[in-house]
Amino acid sequence: MPRSTVAIIHPDAIRYNFLKAKELAGAATVMAVVKADGYGHGIEAATDALAAETTRFAVACLEEARAIRQAGHRHTIALLQGTHESVDLAECQESGFEPVLHNRLQLSWLAPGQCPKFWLKVNTGMNRLGFRPDELPGVMTELGLAGFASQMVGFVTHFACADDADSDRTEQQTALFEEAVAAWPDLLRSVGNSAAHFRRGQPLFDLSRPGIMLYGGSPMIGKTGADLGLKPAMTLQAPLITTRVLQAGDAVGYGAGWVASRETRMGMVAIGYADGYPRHAGTDTPAAVLGRRIRLIGRVSMDMLAVDLSNAPEAREGDMVELWGSTVCVDEVAACAGTIGYELLTGVTARVPRVRG
């Protein structure tokens, strides 16, 4: 029999969080971001959960758009990185994919009969992808002269600091974007990542595009998903495979990184960094068993980790330990590991089966 380590995916939570995003988006249409295999939840599970709620999905690349079609969904799909080769444009046109074009090389690939509907990326300060605002007039003129302007859907930009409630950079980027695209009022505008939904007074224009919040993770610094009223869409759990009583002075794990100061009942859990659990999560990282919060002790190993069972003395071999889910927010674990919930959710490896709950 295989081990029972599993990631339980909760479609109802994904739908709940989408409706929360829709409520926060106001008049803006909500486009669900399902890139990175649905943020680690499975792109089929994510799109199945949201198929009846949205008309648009967004992904990073062509392979992810194809996966949505293979799952049977005919929604419009935005490719947030555009295409990586000119030949891909014909597939986009045929399949209803809308690439976000962000440089002149991609523009040069547009040709009669090979021009899907597309977006333009505006660089308002993130400085990763996109055209500078002062480049837009020339780009739009060129598109018009080439006969491609009619295929353009709209403009997008991306915020660098929307997760930081104390930063005013998002307001600066918004103003720059609004001014940059003002000459083309009939085209759609999209700026709203997950964090933007939680910024009071933040314009989301025509289409918002929530990602991490759909899966219950927090997009805001210093807040968990639960703090923001979101529901976890993944419960990562693994079984206790042994328990023992340590005496004062006994050490646990590699490097003897944790030493018992008193008699302590501990357990070993069948999950480790080869499963995507963060190696840098150390002593005092929360977990839960039988609905009670417990803590990790010592170093995370490749296939196992140790927990202190003092708060759950009745726990026995075979009981399931929640590494994150409804009792322990993934954002809490991420903070202990010095990272963010996005990385943990997308980092759960293929060795852990996803099961819809």
Automatic annotation (TrEMBL):
This is Alanine racemase. Belongs to the alanine racemase family. Catalyzes the interconversion of L-alanine and D-alanine. May also act on other amino acids. Its cofactor is pyridoxal 5'-phosphate. It catalyses: L-alanine = D-alanine. The gene is alr. The keyword Isomerase applies. It holds the Pfam family Ala_racemase_C. Pathway: Amino-acid biosynthesis; D-alanine biosynthesis; D-alanine from L-alanine: step 1/1. Residues 233-357 form the Alanine racemase C-terminal domain. The active site is at 35 (proton acceptor), 254 (proton acceptor). Keywords: Isomerase, Pyridoxal phosphate. GO terms for cellular component: cytosol. Its EC number is 5.1.1.1. Substrate binds at residues 128, 302. The modification N6-(pyridoxal phosphate)lysine is found at residue 35. One of its GO terms (biological process) is D-alanine biosynthetic process. InterPro entries: Ala_racemase, Ala_racemase/Decarboxylase_C, Ala_racemase_C, Ala_racemase_N, Ala_racemase_pyridoxalP-BS, PLP-binding_barrel. It comes from Marinobacter fuscus. NCBIfam families: alr. GO terms for molecular function: alanine racemase activity; pyridoxal phosphate binding.
